[in-house]
C-alpha cells in the first residue's frame, strides 16, 4: 500500500503495467464501472506523457439523491451553495474527539440537502474561516457518501476517500456560481463576522449547573452550561455512535 501511495499521487497521470482486472462490488464504490483494477506485487507504474486537465466531474442531481435514484453504495460528486453553516464542534466517539460540521447545500433550483463532514474535512472548514479567506460560498464534495439519519438524506464523507474543495475555481464551479447569481432565489450566503473570536474554556462545577429540558435549550439564545435528563431514542452508527437522538424524561 505504501508503494502504491508513493507512485500514484492524486492528480498525476501514470502508466500502469501488469495488473489484475476483477468484478467490482461492495459498498462505497467510487465509480459505476463494472470492473476494478487490482495492483499486484509486480505491477510497474511509470510517468505518463499524456496529460488532461479535466476534473472528470460527474455531479449528482439533488432530486435524484433525495428520491433514491442515486444508489447509496456508490460515492458521488456534489456541488452547491453553502447555507446554514453550523459551528465546528468536537464530538466524543470511541475515545477520540473528531471534529464535525453540519451545513446545507443548495442547487440552482433551490433544492437543499443536509451535509455532515467529519475529522479533517471539518478542520478544513475551520481553517478557512479562521484564516479570513472570505465566505464559503460554494462547496464541492467529491466521492461523497449518501447517508440517512432519522429519515433524512444526508451527505457525508466516505472516511478519508472524500475530497472537499471550498470555493472551487474550475469551469464547472464558475458556471454554477454565475447561474446562482442570475437565479431569482436569494443568494443567502453565511453571515460570518470578519473578526476572529477568542474563546476561553472555563471549567464548570457540575454540581452547580442547572438541569434543563430540551424545549428550554431550543428556546435559549445564549450559550451556557446545563445538564439534561433524557432517554436515548436512537443512535447514528456513523463514527461509532457519536450522534444520539434523545427525548426528555420530564416535561418543562
From TrEMBL:
Domain called Replication protein A OB: residue spans: 71-152
A Pfam entry, by short name:
REPA_OB_2
InterPro entries the UniProt entry points to: NA-bd_OB-fold, REPA_OB_2
Question: What's the gene?
Answer: LOC108834395
GO MF terms, alphabetically ordered? DNA binding
Q: Which UniProt keywords apply?
A: DNA-binding
The species this protein belongs to is: Raphanus sativus
Signal sequence extent: none
Q: What is this protein called?
A: Uncharacterized protein LOC108834395
Amino acid at each position: 500500500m505504501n508503494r502504491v501511495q508513493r507512485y500514484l499521487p492524486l492528480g498525476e497521470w501514470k502508466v500502469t503495467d501488469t495488473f489484475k482486472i476483477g468484478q467490482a462490488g461492495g459498498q462505497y464504490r467510487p465509480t459505476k464501472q463494472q470492473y476494478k483494477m487490482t495492483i499486484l506485487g509486480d505491477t510497474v507504474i511509470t510517468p505518463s506523457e499524456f496529460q488532461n486537465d479535466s476534473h472528470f466531474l460527474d455531479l449528482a442531481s439533488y432530486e435524484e439523491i433525495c428520491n433514491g435514484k442515486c444508489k447509496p453504495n456508490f460515492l458521488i460528486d456534489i456541488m452547491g451553495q453553502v447555507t446554514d453553516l453550523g459551528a465546528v464542534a468536537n464530538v466524543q466517539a470511541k475515545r477520540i474527539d473528531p471534529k464535525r460540521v453540519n451545513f446545507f447545500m443548495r442547487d440552482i433550483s433551490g433544492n437543499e440537502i443536509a451535509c455532515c463532514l467529519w475529522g479533517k474535512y471539518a478542520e478544513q472548514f475551520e481553517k478557512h474561516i479562521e484564516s479570513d479567506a472570505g465566505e464559503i460560498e460554494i462547496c464541492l464534495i467529491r466521492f461523497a457518501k449518501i447517508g440517512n439519519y432519522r429519515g433524512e438524506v444526508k451527505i457525508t464523507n466516505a472516511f478519508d476517500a472524500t475530497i472537499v474543495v471550498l470555493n472551487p475555481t474550475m469551469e464547472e464551479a464558475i458556471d454554477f456560481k454565475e447561474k446562482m447569481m442570475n437565479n431569482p432565489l436569494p443568494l443567502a450566503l453565511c453571515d460570518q463576522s470578519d473578526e476572529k473570536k477568542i474563546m476561553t474554556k472555563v471549567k464548570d462545577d457540575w454540581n452547580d449547573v442547572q438541569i434543563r429540558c430540551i424545549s428550554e435549550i431550543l428556546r435559549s439564545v445564549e450559550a451556557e452550561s446545563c445538564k439534561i435528563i433524557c432517554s436515548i431514542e436512537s443512535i447514528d452508527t456513523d463514527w461509532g455512535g457519536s450522534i444520539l437522538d434523545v427525548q426528555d424524561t420530564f416535561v418543562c
